[in-house]
Each structure stands twice: as structure tokens, then as C-alpha cells.
Amino acid sequence: MLPAILTLLLFQALGEVLVRLLRVPVPGPVAGMGLLFLWLIWRGGASRRLERVSRELLQHLGLFFVPAGVGVIVLGPRLAQTWKPILAAVLLGTLVTLGVTALVFRLLTPRAKEEA
Asked: In Å, how far from its chain's centre is CA 30?
């Protein structure tokens, strides 16, 4: 179990280092997850230990949202002052995401030939 947890932490740390060295505007854990994904493809899949640890972490995924909830409560007054830009960013980000997703879907989905 410990080697699997260390593997996950190693890839998170590698992601952090990579992001800081390359100054990429991506969170380190996201880069680490991408590296882990590539490593798993190269290996041909996850080991049984890694699968077991991953399933266990996913069962307790809700606990990972506790720090974010505490941050919202602690920063409540600040959020009350800056809610308009935050709302604008969330709405704009959502619209851009929907648009890009629709565009990618349209480009990657083969068009059905109309029978005349």
C-alpha cells in the first residue's frame, strides 16, 4: 500500500517541479496526473496495489472538498466584496468551455452522409 501512495505522491511532486521549471499556468497536481497517465499507458496499466489505493482514495473523495469549504468560510468577507468578478469569471469560463467542447465535438464527429 505504501509504495502505491508514494507513487502517487511522486507524480504529484514531479508535476509541481515541472510546472515551476517551465512556468506553465497549470496546477502542479494536474501536470502530475498527466505524467501518471502517460506512465500508466507506457506500463500497460496500473498495478493491483495502485488500483486498490486509487479505489480507496475515490471512496473518500468527499473529504478532499473539506479544505475548499473551510477556505470559502474563512474568506467569506473577501468573497462578499469580490463576488462580481468571480461570478463573471465563472460564467465566462463556463461559456468558453461549452463553446470549445461543442467545436471539438463537431470537428471530431464524422458527418453522416445524407442519402438523396
From this structure: 5
